Backbone:
């Protein structure tokens, strides 16, 4: 049968690839310096805190609703993925 952890692993791999793209785009912006780099550096910190808070909330809700472990992990990945994809869209648009 289908192993539900395989789906979680594939999503984690996809998220890692997308995160590397965001890291590269941010490094380019930071290396350029100036006001945009300062703004990006501040934004990174704030967004990381927000992403962790969102993931914690998603995990806690999933646990309290009695979901299995792989569903809980998927919820956490989903919260981080939303932030990574939003950053990727924003950084490629500018």
Residues:
């Amino acid at each position: 049968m289908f192993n539900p952890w395989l789906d979680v692993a594939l999503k984690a791999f996809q998220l890692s690839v997308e995160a590397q793209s965001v890291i590269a785009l941010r490094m380019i912006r930071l290396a350029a310096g100036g006001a945009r780099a300062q703004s990006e550096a501040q934004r990174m910190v704030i967004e990381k805190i927000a992403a962790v808070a969102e993931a914690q909330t998603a995990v806690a809700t999933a646990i309290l609703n009695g979901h299995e472990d792989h569903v809980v992990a998927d919820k956490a990945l989903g919260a981080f993925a939303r932030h990574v994809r939003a950053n990727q869209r924003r950084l490629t648009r500018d």
